[in-house]
Structure formats: C-alpha cells, structure tokens
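This part of the workshop introduces the protein records we will be handling. An example says more than a description, so a record of this kind follows.
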Amino acid sequence: MLAAVAATPTLALSDEDLCALTASAEAAGRLVDATRLATAAEIDDRSRFELGSDGLSYRLGHRRGVHLVEQLTRVSQAEAAQRIRVGAAIRARVGLGGEVLDPAFPHVANAVTWGSVGVDAAAIVTHCLGQAARNGADPAHLDAAERELVAEALRQSADNVAVMARVWREALDPDGAQPREEKLREQRRFVMSRERDGVVPFHGVASPIEAAEFYAAFSESTAPDASPRFLSEEDLERGTETHTTPDGDVVTRLRDPRTREQRQFDVVMGLLRAGVRSTGQGSTATVMAVIKYDDLESDRGIGWLDNVAEPVSASTVRELACDSGFRRLVLGSHGEVLELGQLERSFSYAQRLALAARDGGCVWPQCTAPPSWCHAHHVVEWSQGGNTDVSNGALLCSAHHHMLHASEFTMTMIDGRPHLLAPPWLDPSGEWKLLGRPRLAWAPGALAA
C-alpha cells in the first residue's frame, strides 16, 4: 500500500491533491517515526553496558546499541543516536522495584505516539527541558512547560518550537543562561590539519557570541546588492566584463566569480589580514543584541544575538556593549524600543594610541598581551553614562575583558590611571592596585625622578 503511494507520479496530481498527499504522507511518516524511536530505544536498553556479553548488540557483534541500530536501519550513526535519545526520553521507565513508570516526558510521548508531533520538535523539547531538569527546575513548572510546548508543536514549525523551548529552558533554569554559556564558550576551538593535496583543511567550533560576529561579517560582505569585497587579482580579472553599447559607450561590469563558500572564506581572510595590518578598530560589521529593559537592569534573564538561536545572558550583553561591533537594542515589557546604542561609543584610533602609550597593553596583572590584541574597555560602562574618553578607558585582552565582567573584580580610575580591586576572599586588604605597564614610566628620567 505505502509502496503504491510512494510510486504515485506527482506530475499528474492537481494542486489540491498534491497538498493533500504531502500532508497525508507526513502524518503517516510520523506514525512510522514513533515506531522507529520506540525500537531504537528498546534496542539500546537491551544493549546497556551492565548486561555485558548478554546484551543484544554484543550478541549480534556490536559493542553498542547505536551501532546495531545503524546496521539494521542503514541510517547514519548521528540519526541512530538521535532516535535513541528521543526514544529513551518518551519510553516508559522501569523503577528499582520493577514497577513500570511514566516516561520522563509523558506529553511529548503521547503526541509522538499518535503522530501529532514529529521527531524534530520532540528532540528539541526533550533536550531543552532535560537541561532545565538537570539544573534543578521545579517539576510542576517543567510539566506546564511541556504541555505548552506540545500544544505549540501542533500548530508551529519545529524551528519556532525550538525558539520557544529555549525560552522556557532559560525561564525554568534557576541558574539562568550564564553557566551554560560558559560551558559553550569553553568548547571554542580552531584546528588546522596537515596539508592534503596542496590545501590545508581546518575546522572549529564557535560559541554563540563568536558565531554572531561571523554571521554579521558574512551578511555585510555577501549581500546580493553589496559590491564584491576581498577579491584577489585573479578573481577581479575573471569577473570583469566589458562591452560596447549601441551608442558606442564602453561599459565595464564586475561580476563576482566566486562561490558562496569561497566568498565567505575570503571574508574571513580579508578581516584577518586587515586586523593584522591595522592599528585601528578593524571591521565595521554590527551584531544586534536584543534584550528587555527589565532583564538588563536586573542583570538577569537573556538576550538574543543576530542569526544565533542560542540565547546569551544579560551580563554578556553588558559585556558586548563595551567594545565595537555590537549595538544593543533594549526593549520594554510591551516590545517597545527604549534604547538603541550608537557606534560612537567606540574609542577612536587616536584614543587607542593614547591608551596603548599609557597602559602598555592589557592592564590585568601579569598579562603580557600587546595593545594590538586588546579591547578598549569603558571603566564606567558607556551604557551607564561613562564617557568614551582616555580618562575612562583601559586596555584589556579578550580573556581578561571577559573575566572582569564575569567575576567579582572591580575596576576604577584614580588620577587618570586604571586601578583594580580584588574580591575580599582573594585580597582581604581591600586596596586598589595600580594597573598598566607604561614604557615611559620605566625610562631612566622617570626612574631618576
């Protein structure tokens, strides 16, 4: 029956029949998916480690249940693993005494079983609420969130449900977004492999903050109406077309000959080279950070960055506002725009030179990062009325800039120089420590004075 439906020539269908077949096929597929999830989770449970050589996968020549599912279904290992994860979250559990318990996510389980909710929505709902549960969310609140998300999944796309699930996760998690954000940041990496056939492969992982910067740079440089940027001489020559109009005018047009992936690579390299050569601010790409006013004032809650699904904490939005490349949009409780930060908060080239001469690089104790590696930090935050003046600025490398915002250290300006106060548990004296290593202060004349 299903094979006959699959063989139906869609070219012969009317618009109405095509839409009806699409909806019916999806409904049937969801019922099949429910069985796929159930069987994958059951195979994994019967292959669990403690069963040893008696485990199902071991007896059939596999070390883990996921490998057996992969062999039986011929799907990718990633797909097999997702089926096991989601299936385990919605299958009935067995208690210590052998009694049968409800699934960890009963509302999702019921919706999947009846074909009302697809695997994509079920996966993101169970993942996000599972994170909140592990961090101590109230079970009653988790149940209410699950009910609401399942109801939304009946009328919204899986992508929209994913956004809602993340919002619920942040609302339910007692610790908020910041601990999870720190874990994501710790995963950042960039790896260059050995050369292969004349090219060097590389790969990496970016946290939501760095990913937003990448998206902003790509959007700025690869927009359909943007002039081609970072073109090599060869690409410039290949993309230049010249023709003569009937009136005898010679017209030159530039067509970008690169693929989208090549353009994005050239953007990264162009910005990298510009940053290496430049002693100024570098890229003008802007990332919009959106946050509610109440969340910003209380330093709790979450904000959202352009093109990034993962939310960031309110404290991170404050941190981003210190440096160039980010604009902060503050919304009221009804969604009204209360504040749109201006890029004029950025320190000028001349001001950064003055900071470099005064601070000598990152001012954090024992840090040796040079000025070219540093952010210009507003000691009194620009969003709190701090001026973009040398007398209110200090150079901090990326790591210590983040540390200052995320820790209990306090910075202030005394006699035009940055000073740092360590938390009491680290320095009981409560003394402000002078920061910076200005080269002029080490000159023979200064020492003699």
